[in-house]
Design brief:
This is Threonylcarbamoyl-AMP synthase. It comes from Aerococcus christensenii. It is a single chain. The chain contains 14 helices and 15 strands. It has 348 residues and is of the alpha/beta class. It has 2 domains: 216 residues, Alpha-Beta Complex (DHBP synthase), CATH 3.90.870; 94 residues, Threonylcarbamoyl-AMP synthase, C-terminal domain (Rossmann fold), CATH 3.40.50. α1 packs across α6. The termini are far apart.
Length: 348
């Protein structure tokens, strides 16, 4: 049965499907999420099954009211609660997921990956906030793509992976940000750890919490954290299309592209910002990431999906950005997608 595209005036139908334990994809400002009502263990399990997602990869819970963070979290110290309220007041609704102790009996172990913590966020999208309210309970919402593939930033991406496999998708414009939310762990008093970079940066967090130490843990991940990840995307390879992906800094990218034979160029596609693309002679297939880091981050997943159905394209040559704070979300996603972890492709 084809997946239904729910229009704005059909949100009641989408909410009813969710209450019945069906899966409905929904838009956010970051990427599209694959929604299931979070108090139905079988529905949540079906999210893992549909995506092919490892069972120890925890899910993020999406709420419609900021106060629900405290309704669904366990006991918080006064210091941790103050941090939570400051983050909520500053960044919600928005692309920030806050990890807190989970209140016992609220969500099943399938939601939390068996952990005693849960990631919660309030998305900045009116259709999804309305959908959650109409459903009557928070929704889990991992990215609405097959596990390991690039995250979806438009309805067409969702349907490419799930048409006929889920009940529906809420019809909406492409997402505004294009990469998943920043994830922070606030369960350690006096500390905030960034477990996944996103649009809200370390600098943004430090400005909101000047008295708290903010640490980008993605740069100093411990092995135990990888064995028992508190946030999605920490342990497993993500964001990879079926082609090989080579992430190269601009100078190295241009050197590599200029060295390719016409036959090699015919089998490749270039995903880069406009300044690089303007120098890519001989490539019929390219995807523009725009002019700056913001447009590049917004377009990265769409670029990685752009050649999904083109069997001629075997290699994607993708511009990597320098290791700077403002590029962290882009670099995090592209590095996870890259086949070579930023090295040169093999030559035949």
């Amino acid at each position: 049965m084809p997946t239904k595209c729910y229009q704005v005036d059909e949100l009641d139908q989408a909410a009813q499907a969710l209450r019945q334990g069906q899966l409905v994809a929904f838009p956010t400002e970051t990427v599209f999420g694959l929604g299931a009502i979070a108090n139905n263990e079988e529905a949540v399990k079906s999210v893992y099954q549909a995506k092919g997602r490892p069972s120890d990869n925890p899910l993020i819970v999406h709420i419609a009211k900021a106060e629900d963070l405290f309704r669904f979290s366990g006991d918080l110290s006064l210091e941790v609660e103050r941090v939570a309220r400051r983050l909520v007041e500053t960044f919600w609704p928005g692309p920030l997921t806050i990890i807190v102790p989970v209140r016992k009996g609220t969500f099943g172990p399938t939601v939390t990956g068996g952990l005693q913590t849960v990631g919660i966020r309030m998305p900045d999208h009116p259709l999804t906030l309305s959908l959650i309210q109409k459903t009557g309970f928070p929704l889990v919402g991992p990215s609405a793509n097959l596990s390991g593939k690039p995250s979806p930033t438009c309805v067409q991406h969702v349907l490419h992976d799930f048409d006929g496999k889920i009940a529906g998708v809420v019809d909406a414009d492409p997402t505004r940000i294009g990469v998943e939310s920043t994830v922070v762990d606030i369960t350690h008093p006096g500390q905030v750890y960034i477990l996944r970079p996103g649009a809200i940066t370390e600098k943004d967090l430090q400005k909101a919490l000047p008295e708290i130490e903010v640490t980008d843990a993605t740069r100093v991940i411990q092995s135990d954290s990888l064995e028992h990840p508190k946030a999605p995307g920490m342990k497993y390879r993500h964001y990879s299309p079926h082609q090989e992906v080579y992430a190269l800094l601009p100078e190295e990218l241009m050197k590599t592209l200029h060295s390719l034979t016409p036959d090699e160029k015919a089998k490749g596609a270039v995903i880069a910002r406009d300044q690089v693309l303007s120098q890519c002679e001989g490539f019929a297939k390219t995807f523009s990431l725009g002019e700056n880091v913001k447009t590049a981050t917004h377009g990265l997943f769409a670029g990685l999906r752009a050649f999904d159905d083109d069997d001629q394209v075997q290699i994607l040559y993708v511009e990597q950005l320098p290791d700077q704070a403002e590029n962290r979300a882009y670099r995090n996603r592209l590095s996870k997608a890259a086949s070579n972890k930023e090295g040169l492709p093999p030559r035949s």
